[in-house]
Design brief:
Number of helices: 12
CATH topology of the domain at 10-80 and 103-185 and 277-354: FAD/NAD(P)-binding domain
CATH superfamily of the domain at 10-80 and 103-185 and 277-354: FAD/NAD(P)-binding domain
Shape: globular
CATH class of the domain at 10-80 and 103-185 and 277-354: Alpha Beta
Number of strands: 19
Distance between the termini: 33 Å
Strand content: 25-35%
Bound molecules: adenosine-5-diphosphoribose, P-hydroxybenzoic acid
Radius of gyration: 21 Å
Helix content: 25-40%
Amino acid sequence: MPRGAAPPRETAVGIIGGGPAGLLLARLLHRAGVDCVVLESRDRDYVEQRQRAGILEQGTTDVLRACGAGERLDREGLVHDGIELRYDRRAHRLDFPALTGRRVTVYAQTEVVKDLIALQLADGPPLLFGARALAVTGADTDRPRIHYAHGGREHTLTCGYVAGCDGFHGVARQAVPESARRTYTRGYPYSWLGVLADAPPAHDELVYAHSERGFALLSMRTPTVSRLYLQVPNGTDPADWPDERIWDELQARAAVDTAPWNPVRGPLTAKAVLPLRSSVTEPMRWGRVLLAGDAAHIVPPTGAKGLNLAVADVTVLARALVHRHRTGSAELLDGYSATCLRRVWRAEHFSHFMTTTLHTAPDQSPFDTRLQLAALDRIAGSRHAAAELAENYTGLPLP
Ligand code: APR
Ligand code: PHB
């Protein structure tokens, strides 16, 4: 939106949130000729720098390419054919193409967001940074309104529909009356300490390591930057983890007898402790307000589903809103919540399985550990069990 232009007062679809869900929905609607506006509370730098996961399912990369956001992704994304599971000092690789015919792409969420913002600022629709939605009213009318603060003043955006893409801490979810809102949640007795390392990746694919010392994940951003995670107790202060302690612990947890690992110990940055949480809010629609992405559901990052679920939601939502725009029929909107929730709960189950199988809980018994090792052995020894994990990890076909 040109600097200084008056904020829009009406739109067909008001989108709250300029993360992956809101930005991709805006792109899909804009390309289909549906008028929309994105309200993002933070500034551009903040949104583009937020460290998040970086695994894109094949369905996600297909959608990004189809809407014109695939050029840098294809140039810089790292296509991966598998992951490695490590446990009991052994390693087992899952071959995705052999098991599912699909692969994944390593491309950070920050880069997806940068690409979508650049496209939107170049040719629309309006994207307002520093625009914080305060409330959504009239969800059960045909003119819902978003009340928001921007430029030191309060404004109202009158919409045909409102898309709540404002994440776990957003306001859109409150448009579903408490009496009708069902929230299912699960916490975990551990968190992740995540860091960026100026060091080449430990392995050419991602490594998920089970260890009685705790879980470790060896991921990457580029051929020279690693993204590394350690399971830590909830409430851990990153300051208690100097670089050497992190490298020592990563090496201890990811150790296997067949391939000693002496990582290049580059400097660590972006140290942050991330809590793990599972949460689903039902329904994902109330009248003319529709929830998508983290505004409706949260998964622990172990299964790398968060961004991909957001993409799946807005793919379904864009299809439904375009259908409504072109035909006047709300039939696809009527099925939106049920269609998305089937996939959401599948991803919740998979993410919970990966999390509870790979992490060592503080009060875990030796019996629990043996169950975990039996599950991992089953995956290593059975094509069917390996295919079940690979199908979920590489992503089920989009609805
Ligand atoms: N008004 C306007 N914008 C808001 C408000 C508000 N009241 N509240 C939150 N936002 C913005 C946030 O600043 C953020 O940019 O909504 C956006 C929500 O983005 P995400 O939290 O990234 O959620 P989503 O777009 O659904 O993407 C899900 O992001 O958080 C990760 O792990 C998650 O990978 C998953 C992906
Ligand atoms: C990441 O690269 O940030 C990442 C990768 C896979 C996960 C979680 C995070 O499961």
